[in-house]
Structure formats: C-alpha cells, structure tokens
Amino acid sequence: MSNVATKKLQPLHDRVVEANRSLADKGLLRKRVKVMLDPEHASCFEVDDLPYINFSSNDYLGLSRDPNVIEALYSGAKDFGAGGASSPLVIGYNQAHQQLEQALCNATGHEAALLFCSGFTANHALMKTLFNDSDQVLTDKLVHASVIDGLQDSGATLKRFIHNDVASATHNFERHAPCAVITESVFSMDGDVAPLAELSALCKQNGAWFIVDDAHGFGVIGDNGMGASAVAEGIDIDAQVVTFGKALGGQGAAILGSRELIEYLVANARQYIYSTALSPANAAAVTASIDTIINTPQLNQKLQANIATFITSCDAASIELTGSCTAIQPIIIGDSARTLAIAKRLKEHGFWVGAIRPPTVAQGSARLRVTLTAEHCEEDIHAFVAVLADILQDQ
Ligand SMILES: Cc1ncc(COP(=O)(O)O)c(C=O)c1O
User: Fold this and answer.
1) Count of domains forming the chain
2) Which of 64, 252, 314, 384 has CB 3.0 to 4.6 Å from 244, enough for a Cys bridge?
3) Same domain, residue pair 302 and 291
4) In terms of residue numbers, what domain contains 219?
5) 176 included as an active-site residue
6) 261 and 176 share a domain?
7) Are 45 and 136 members of one domain?
8) Does residue 2 sit within a domain?
9) What is the pLDDT of residue 117?
10) Which of 57, 117, 120, 371 to mutate to test the pocket of ligand 1 (most atoms within 8 A of CB)?
11) What is the DSSP letter of 186?
C-alpha cells in the first residue's frame, strides 16, 4: 500500500479505535464468547472449559437438536444442495423453498410467503419496500431495531405509542392517521404479549394495515403454536414476519401476507432480489420443524410447564418478575454494572444468563434476560432460582 493510501486510511482507523475505547470505558463494548456445545444436552455448554446450564437461548423448543429436523437438513442438503446457489430471481428458488412457503401458509392462513436469510433482513425489506416518505407509520415504542432501521430507510414518518397501550395507540391514530400499525407479538426483551386483537380491531376500523413481527411468537404462542394470527379469532394481520432462528431451531425468516403483497416484494425488495436465496437444506429443516411443532404438542407443553415452574419457584424465593407468561422472563435490575455483576456471579455458579443493557433496553432498565426452553429440567430451574435468590440478596 502506498504512503498516500496509508495516510488516508489513518483517520478512519483512529475513529474506530476511539469508538471502541469510548464504549469500553462505559462498559458497553460488546464481545463474543466462544461456546463449546454439548452434543447430548441442548441446555448445556462450556466456555473456557467450564460447564454452564444455559438460560439465554431462543431455541425455545430445542428443535435445533431435534433428530427429525437434523435428518431433514441432511436429506435437504443431499437432495437440493447445501447452499442457495443464486438469487431466488435467478435459479435460487426451488421445491424446498416452495414447500416451506406452503407449510407456512397452511400454518398461518396467509395466502403467500417470501423467504429471507434472516429476520433482520425480512423486517428491513418489508419496511423499506412498503413505505415511502408520504407515509405516517405507528409502532409500539419497543419494536425491534430491524423495524426501526427499515422505517428510517423508507423515509416514512415514524410515530410511536406507549408500549402495549391501546389507549395510546388510539390517541395516536386520531392525531396522525397512520397507514399502518406495527408491533411485536412477544416482545424480545420483555416477554410480554401485545394486545393483538385490540390493535387488529383498531386497524380494521381505520382502514390501516396491521403488521406483526412474530419472531418470538411463531412456534410457541397461539393455537398449535402457530403464532400471532392463531392467538384469537378475528386477528387480521396484513403482513406477518416469522423467524426460523428461534422456536423453529433453524435460520432465516419469512414475510407472510396476500398474494399481491408477496408479488410486490418479489419485484421490488432489494434485499430479496440482490441476495443469495436461503439454503434449501435449511428450508427443508424448517419445514420439518413446523411439522414437529404441529405433531408433537408435548414440546410446547413441556415449555409451558418449565415456565410455570420458574414463575412459582421465583415467587417462593421472593424474586420479583415482570408478569411475563412466556419463555422470556426478564428480571429488571436497573443499573448496568450491577446487572453485569449478578450475571458474572451466576456464571461462577454454572448458570449462563444474558445481561441486557442500554442501548438494547432503556436507560435504567438493565436486566437479566432469562429464557426457558423445553430442554430444561425442573431440578435445573430450581437450582438456578435458589442461586439467583442468594445473589440478589447479597448484592
Ligand atoms: C423481535 C425480533 N425481530 C426480528 C429479529 C431478527 O431475527 P433474526 O435473528 O432471524 O435476524 C429478532 C432477533 O433478535 C427479534 O428479536
């Protein structure tokens, strides 16, 4: 590299180093840990040769280790290939994708589906492609970063209502006449469920679209675990984003909606047109996950039993919970440093829990994000709660 080029790069390098230092000073520099998975027990892993019981996974049903799902991934790779090969608009759309889209439509009642390689991309594509700078869009205050980024990139004017507050949504409707309302079904950092029926009715009354990010709902809430649209009669969702990396134990996502919406996205969504298709092996695995969820209700029953055990056990130990009834059970600590210290002490006792801090959650609301899965056993849950109660008392 010439001297001139080195000099030109230097300011950028300095900027990166300075940004890292500033985050590190505030205790906010995010880092990865390398996890050694246990092939036998999905709820266990090792980090630096130390064993942990995992209370931070979104693999709520343990399907990433399910033998049928793994077999489908294997035979999907053999039959259709391990990789997507090209954009779906070239030759990257095949029978594995078509079968998964059909399974998703059957499960949710939507007319059509479109597959993406991640939920972040699906949300971003939907927002950026659907809206433009003449639109006002109303969202719950806590919707995911991918929705916010997509809306910002679309140029739409973003209005927010108080989290899960139908009165606030109604008030905002009267003031701003939005063309769409967007919520999550199960909120990723809070675990509470949106008032889906009320928001759907509000949208119907006002001729607006109802859009739901069902990332943490599909697979575990609603009739048969089939997500937001299956929670109650009469919930009409115009566009629903389901992700495969959480309860379905795979990877990727889909946008579900009318035939016209999907046709529009195929023709216009740059994230779909200019990107390699979802791996067909993964599509086959996700199709098997949907079958497994429908045909093995015991998985969801086990998850619900574990959630109930956790809540009862916390209640007995006087640990304050938030009232969430889903697999996501936050314990609000408030201060970021204290949250980190508690998570560290839990690790010393062999329990791995995410310490969630700003900017992921609001200032002053740092929390332990405890997640339950169908893979946990009762003894692990009781042991975890006993240790947590001791640590909370000490701190
Ligand atoms: C609510 C919500 N939506 C979308 C996403 C993105 O999904 P994916 O992990 O498939 O990119 C996430 C993942 O963290 C999420 O929590």
Assistant:
1) 2
2) 252
3) no
4) 65-295
5) no
6) yes
7) no
8) no
9) 98
10) 120
11) B
Decide if 345 is inside a domain: yes
**Where is the domain boundary, 264, 280, 295?**
295
Taking the chain (395 residues) in runs of 10, the rounded mean pLDDT of each run is 59 94 88 89 91 97 96 97 95 97 97 98 98 98 98 98 98 97 98 98 97 98 94 95 98 98 98 98 98 98 98 98 98 95 97 94 96 97 98 90
- Read off the DSSP letter of residue 220: T
Residue nearest to atom 16 of ligand 1 (CA): 188
Beta carbon of 253 within 6 Å of any ligand 1 atom: yes
- Measure the CA–CA gap between 119 and 252, rounded to whole angstroms: 6
Q: Is the CB of 144 under 6 A from ligand 1?
A: yes
Distance (Å, whole) CA 158 – CA 120 = 18
Shared domain check, 324 and 291: no
Both 320 and 278 in a single domain? no
Closest atom of ligand 1 to CA, residue 252: 10
Distance 256 CA to ligand 1 centre (A): 16
Model pLDDT, residue 28: 80
CB 215 near ligand 1, within 6 Å: yes
* Predicted pLDDT at 210: 98
Q: What is the pLDDT of residue 138?
A: 98
Structural tokens at position 348 = 């010393």
- Do residues 285 and 338 both lie within one domain? no
Q: How many residues does the chain have?
A: 395
* 144 flagged as catalytic: yes
Residues 289 and 310 in one domain: no
Distance CA 122, CA 130 (A): 12
Q: Provide the CATH number for the domain around residue 364.
A: 3.90.1150.10
Q: Has residue 21 been placed in a domain?
A: no
Read off the DSSP letter of residue 230: G
13 is a catalytic site residue: no
| Whole-angstrom distance, CA of residue 166 vs CA of residue 162 | 8
**In a shared domain, residues 74 and 193:** yes
Catalytic residue among 54, 146, 154, 188: 188
Confidence (pLDDT) at 5:
59
Mutate to test the pocket of ligand 1, among 184, 188, 248 (most ligand atoms within 8 A of CB): 188
Domain contains 23: no
Distance CA 372, CA 61 (A): 9
| DSSP-derived secondary structure letter, 285 | H
DSSP-derived letter for residue 151 is H
